[in-house]
Every structure is written in C-alpha cells, then in structure tokens.
C-alpha cells in the first residue's frame, strides 16, 4: 500500500491513509558513520542539540546512537498521550531503572508495574497536604537562614554564585524534610552528606547516558569515589531509619503528625506491613535527588529572570508586604499559600526554563498515537521545552510574563495559552507526587528573596549557559544583591 505524506521542516510526515507511520519512515538529522548522532548527543547541552534538530527536520524524527535507534518527539499531543498510557503501555527508559537498581535504589521514581503502584500509594500518602503543611516550618526556618546569610553578603558587596548557593540551600531543606537531618551548609559550610551527594548525582546522569558500562569492567577514580559515597549514604539513612522506628514507639503521637518524610514513610510502612527498609531508603533517596537538584535549579532560573525584571521583583515584594509584612519570610502555611503572584512567577519560570526538558520512555507493546506507530521496545525521547516556548501554545512565548498565569491581570486575554502542555512534573498517573512540596518551597523562597533584596545580574544574560546534567541548570549565574 502506498502511503502519502507531507515532508517539510515544519510538518514531518503526516499520514494521509489509515496506515500508521513507523519510525523507519521518519526523517533524521545529519549524523556520522557508525557513531550516528552520539558525538552531538554526548554534549552537556544535549537538550539544546535536540531543539536544533527539531528546527532542522521537524518535531518527530529518529536519531542513532552507536547503531541503536531512538525516536525524538517534540509533539505535545503525542507526549501527553505517552504519559497518559503509563505504566501499562509505556515505561521509563529501562536504562534508568537499571542504573538506579544497580545502585541499590528502588523508589517511586524508577519502579515499574506493580512495584510502582505500591511505591506510589505509600509516597502519595507520605506527601499528602497535611504532611506538606507540616513540613512548612522547616522551609521557613531555612529560608530565614538564607536571608541572614545573603543580607551579610549584600552588606559586604559580595557577588553570589546562585546555582551553588541554591544547591546548599535546597540540600539543607531536603535533608531535614527527608529524614530530619539538620545539615545547615548555608552557615557551617560543607557537610559530609552533602559531599557524598555531590559525588553521586553527576554520576547517575553520566551512567544513564553512557553508551557502554565501562565502570563494570574498570573502576575509575570517580567510580571508586561514587561507590564509597553510596555506601556512606546508605549506612547513614539506614541508621536514621532505625532511629525513626524507635521514635515512633516512644512517641506514638508522631503517627498523626510526622516531622519529616522518613517518619511519614515509616508510619505507612507500619500500617501497610509490606514495605521493606530498602524500599524506604529508595524513596528517601528519591526525595533527596528531586529536592536537591531539580528544585535548586528551578529557583536559580527564576532568579535569572527576576534579576533582569525589577518591576516583577517589586510586585512580588508588594505581595509579600501585604501578606506577611512584619517578618522576613512567610510565618504560616496559609500565608505562603496566598502568594498567588509569586506562584505565577514560578509557573512562568518552569514554562520557559524547564529543568527537565527531556523525558525518555519505552513502548511495552505496539501503540498507535495520532497516526504514528510506536513499536514494542522503541524508546521515545520526549522533548518538551520546544512546545512550551512555541507561539502556537503561548503568546509571545520568549517573554517572561507571569501575568499570563493570572487571567484577571493578563494583558493578552484571548491569546494562545496552553498550560496543559507543561511537563515539568510529568503527566498521567505517574505525575510527580512531590509537586505540592516543590511548589511550596519555590514560592516561599522567591517571596523571601524578593521581599528583602533587589537583584542585579553580575554578568551579561547571554553569558549564563544552559547545562544538562541530571537536570538543566544555569552555569555562570552571578548576581549582586542590595538589601531593602
């Protein structure tokens, strides 16, 4: 049967018959003999490489990495359906689960099938609204600590390396929320747990994207340091698990009001009776991974735009003064929840600079979506940033305009606005269970900073580079502060 299709830069093959298009019929960007597109894909800005390929050949195409074919989709309708069909018909790229399991990590992030359902239930219960509200004092305390440090730096005229500062800040919050460990790297400097985490997170990304698992044959110096760090982290968390169990026995009232994520998991473990300590560790580690990396980078990108938009900083400050004018940070969860303009700023930052621009999924069976056949075993690299910054989906997409998220104040009423395509927290039944906690932390942090400081970029905007490790972060983001 002949299949007719339109093949242009802006319109990749569109089926004109009932026969679906397969990957063999999709276009491909220019690559190299044998290695294919590997040399370009290995770059630390691989998400931007994929964006350029979308411009070159369209929003659905294939690439080859050492002979293994992958499909790249920047089509939001296809990406949405793939996420909706998880976990039954698609799963996360199996190499992610392989690498994390090799590290001894089994949590809600990398579990699949029935194992995922069990992890999802217990994690959702541990991150329910009541518990997230209970975590508020920790976020507020560390935010106030950040104000104290940055106020001193502002008085001294110091330039702030935002990404590094935010990593310290979020690791302080995350370790205390995750398992009650008061790290306080903002004031005391490096902590042993932070030192271990700094060795672990980059290696996860390196191993997931490595074409060959060379570390299984020959251990490099970095591999040995990584192995040592994992042993120490596991030992520490398992010790904290035992201490947490003792606290639940000695203080049964904790069951109604757990102080941290670990205690909430242990309450669910006691209630369910089917959750091992290793699985508790896996989910605590997942919390560390998500909270320390993606959240810190999201705050950093928000500050990148705020430093260029003093009028937006003023609006955040006015909102903060109206809601909690007598303190440096919100003093209650209700005050934080009332920061609607700051929330819009966060949403705009997540739209234009998503820290997870790519998601990798594998088909568990043949699935037809929008006239395209994704065959069993094929892996789809979903490029989500392109759609989030396309004029078909958002009017004036390259402008940072939080007002687009507030209908009553939006000057572009009637223009394109498609929030449904935002994939920062995934989609479908595997939507990130930590969204509520992450958004609360982002809003409280930005409100605190803007209430107390004016921001100015210490470098030209174009000197701040997008770098992709486990998530996408700003390199060379330097800011000067002025206390107000």
Which features does this protein show?
484 residues; alpha+beta; Cytochrome p450; 12 strands; disordered N terminus; Cyt_P450_sf; Cyt_P450_CS; heme binding; oxidoreductase; Cytochrome P450
Description:
The protein is α+β, with helices and mostly antiparallel strands and 484 residues long. The chain has a single domain, classed as Cytochrome p450 (Orthogonal Bundle), CATH 1.10.630. Helices cover 50% and strands 11% of the residues. The protein has 17 helices and twelve strands. The strands form four sheets. A five-stranded mixed sheet has the order 1-2-8-5-3. Strands 4-12-9 form a three-stranded antiparallel sheet. A two-stranded antiparallel ribbon has the order 6-7. A hairpin with a 2-residue loop joins strand 1 and strand 2. Helix 6 packs antiparallel against helix 7 and helix 13 packs across helix 17. It is globular. The chain starts with 37 loop residues before the first helix and ends with a strand. The N terminus is likely disordered.
Tell me the layout of helices and strands.
Elements: H1 38-41, H2 46-57, E1 60-65, E2 68-73, H3 76-84, E3 90-92, H4 94-102, H5 113-126, H6 129-155, E4 159-161, H7 162-179, H8 185-188, H9 192-209, H10 221-250, H11 261-272, H12 277-306, H13 310-324, H14 333-337, H15 340-352, E5 358-363, E6 367-369, E7 372-374, E8 379-383, H16 385-388, H17 435-452, E9 453-457, E10 465-468, E11 472-475, E12 478-483
Parallel strand pairs: 2-8
Antiparallel strand pairs: 1-2, 3-5, 4-12, 5-8, 6-7, 9-12, 10-11
């Amino acid at each position: 049967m002949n299949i007719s299709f339109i093949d242009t830069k802006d319109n990749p093959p569109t089926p004109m018959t009932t026969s679906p298009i397969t990957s063999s019929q999709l276009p491909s960007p220019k690559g190299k003999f044998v290695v294919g597109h590997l040399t370009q894909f290995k770059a630390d800005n691989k998400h931007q490489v994929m964006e350029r390929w979308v411009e070159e050949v369209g929003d659905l195409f294939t690439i080859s990495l050492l002979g293994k074919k992958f499909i790249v989709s920047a089509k939001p309708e296809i990406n949405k359906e793939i996420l909706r069909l998880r976990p039954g018909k698609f799963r996360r790229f199996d190499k992610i689960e392989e690498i994390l399991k090799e590290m001894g990590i089994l949590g809600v992030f990398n579990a699949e099938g029935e194992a995922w359902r069990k992890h999802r239930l217990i994690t959702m219960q541990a991150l329910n609204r009541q518990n997230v509200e209970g975590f508020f004092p920790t976020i507020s305390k560390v935010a106030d600590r950040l104000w104290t440090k940055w106020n001193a730096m502002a008085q001294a005229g110091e330039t702030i390396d935002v990404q590094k500062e935010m990593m310290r800040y979020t690791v302080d919050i995350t370790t205390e929320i995750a398992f009650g460990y008061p790290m306080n790297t903002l004031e005391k400097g490096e902590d042993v747990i932070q030192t271990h985490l700094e060795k672990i997170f980059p290696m996860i990304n390196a191993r997931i994207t490595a074409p060959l698992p060379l570390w299984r044959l020959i251990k490099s110096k970095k591999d040995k340091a990584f192995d040592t760090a994992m042993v120490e982290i596991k030992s520490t968390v398992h010790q904290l698990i035992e201490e947490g169990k003792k606290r639940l026995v000695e203080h049964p009232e904790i069951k109604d009001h757990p102080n941290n994520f670990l205690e909430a998991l242990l309450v669910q473990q006691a209630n369910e009776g089917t959750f091992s300590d290793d699985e508790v560790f896996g989910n605590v580690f997942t919390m560390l991974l998500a909270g320390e990396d993606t959240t810190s980078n999201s705050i950093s990108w928000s500050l990148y735009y705020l430093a260029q938009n003093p009028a937006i900083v003023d609006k955040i400050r006015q909102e903060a003064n109206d809601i909690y004018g007598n303190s440096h940070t919100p003093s209650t969860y209700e005050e934080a929840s009332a920061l609607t303009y700051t929330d819009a700023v966060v949403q705009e930052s997540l739209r234009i600079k998503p820290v997870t621009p790519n998601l990798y999924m594998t088909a568990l069976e043949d699935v037809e979506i929008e006239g395209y056949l994704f065959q069993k075993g094929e892996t789809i690299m979903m490029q989500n940033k392109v759609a989030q910054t396309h004029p078909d989906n958002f009017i004036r997409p390259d402008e940072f305009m939080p007002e687009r998220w507030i209908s009553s104040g939006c000057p572009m009423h009637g223009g394109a606005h498609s929030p449904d395509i935002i994939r920062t927290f995934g989609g479908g039944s595997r939507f990130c269970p930590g969204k509520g906690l992450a958004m609360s932390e982002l809003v409280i942090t930005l409100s605190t900073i803007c209430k107390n400081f004016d921001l100015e970029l210490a470098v030209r905007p174009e000197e701040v580079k997008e770098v992709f490790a486990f998530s996408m972060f700003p390199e060379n983001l330097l800011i000067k502060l002025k206390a107000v």
